[in-house]
Model the fold of this input.
Amino acid sequence: MSTIKAQLSTLIELAKIDGEFDGQEKLHILMLGRANGLSEIEIKDIVKNPVPMPDVKLLTSDDKFDYLFNIIQLMKIDQEVYKSEIHHCEKLATKLGFKTKVVSAISSQVYSDPSISADIDALKKAVKKYEI
Done:
């Protein structure tokens, strides 16, 4: 459960990077939190008191992929992608053990609309090529 709280904290940090915590971004974070068993109160608490990202060495490959996928999806959710958001995603990708190019390489396959599902298995294979 703490991994999802840390992921949501990372997403909230990204959502705030452009100076606006947009309605679509908030809604996406809320939906993701609820889908992972968190209450609205718990999610609002994470907004106020972010949880630090766990030691990357403790994350599984799937956890790292989830982080990467979720930050790229959130970056695109409001249909506006800022350079600051791209740089932030690249920095997080590096922290997760990927080359920065992974963000541009897979972002075209990650849809801003969560109801459009990406081919997760294909994305996981593509991401493997960018592991450091």
